[in-house]
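Hallway conversation turned thread

IA: we were arguing at lunch whether anyone had actually written out 3-oxoacyl-[acyl-carrier protein] reductase end to end. Turns out nobody had. So, for the record, here is the sequence (254 residues) and right after it the structure tokens. Reply here if something looks off.
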Amino acid sequence: MTSQGTLGTSQGTLDGKVALVTGASRGIGAATALRLAREGADVAVGYVNGKEAAEEVVRAVEALGRRAVAVRADAADADEAAGAVTAAAEALGGIDVLVNNAGVGVLGPLETLSLADVDRVLAVNVRGVFLTSQTAAARMPEGGRIITIGSCMAQRVPGPGGTLYATSKAALAGMTKALARELGGRGITANLVHPGPIDTDMNPADGPYAAGQAAMTALGRFGTADEVASMVAYLATASYVTGAEFAVDGGHTA
């Protein structure tokens, strides 16, 4: 890793590094995979259902002159979550950067949430992140990077219906701080990025609930997946930033 990173990272700052981005077939994950490739990294593109979309991201990474591989894994499955790291490392020759982006959201009134909802959300958003981080840390060399995608709802829940999702994302703060302490002696950093309303196919900026979400931000607009990816790229190179949370939310939590 470079000794110091900036938000305006230039091409080549991740030359010779290997990154795994989970949930990278679309949205924030896809944008992050491409941004890391532009910085010089070879990228494993994690996915669970969107095989064709993941392969498109692979081709886009390869078009940038970097190596890439699509890795299928359901983060809700303990073996597959950990296995994604192993598959990526074996295909690309190691792992230096892990981006925990895969996640699911189940929103709704508290009384409507089933045990199956609870189990799946916690399995993907918490247990899956723990297992990928644990497996990656065991393989990472000195100076590795673990970057997890949280949510602005871990810091501010603007209305009812988000109890389960916010619970799962808030758990990542404790995990990130503990990882930073546990792995700091090896120069491995762990950080958490909290996106706000981001324009993706899952939550489009012209969707039926978009106006209300945009109004909750200080900037009055949705963010882009590239804006989140820019923060991830910074953290992939920064060497003296760890155990920290970064809001990329347009002032949602201001």
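OS: looked through it. Residues 118 and 164 are 7 Å apart (CA to CA).
IA: good, adding that to the notes. Helices lie at 27-38, 51-63, 78-92, 115-139, 163-183, 210-215, 225-237.
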